Amino acid sequence: MDADLDGARLWWIASGLLLAVELFSGTVFLLLLAIGLACAGLVAWGGGTVTLQMLTAALIGGGAMLALRTWRRHRRGEAAPDASLALDRGQAVHVSRWRADGTASVQYRGAHWLARCTDDTAAAQAQSTGEFIIVDVEGTMLRVRPATSSMPAAPATPRSS
Question: How high is the pLDDT of residue 5?
């Protein structure tokens, strides 16, 4: 058995193991590291030194991870706004009580959400509870504003005495 092939086999086995772990984790980063290890195996098969093999694995695997991370950040910054968020804008939610930290818990789409008034003054929050309109969605936080009189009023229900 040739010693160079043994080094190449080790790189290929490590690459295969990393690919197997990647299948269970579902991340693309382990795939990129596995490609770096496979390239190091090619260098070993071609007779490269151990230092060159390690440098190849680090530069290709690490460089591919860095390139993907940079590309994702750049793409995320240019992404169009999520269309599903536009469906939430303009919807009404009911605020029954504001907390001291300026948030309220509201029921919306069958789940509890945190809401924060776009006008963060304590007076704006203290003056009104009731209907608020969703202005924006920031993660799990709804940005809301008080419902105005320009909004159509709900039909009055007769009260029984």
Answer: 54
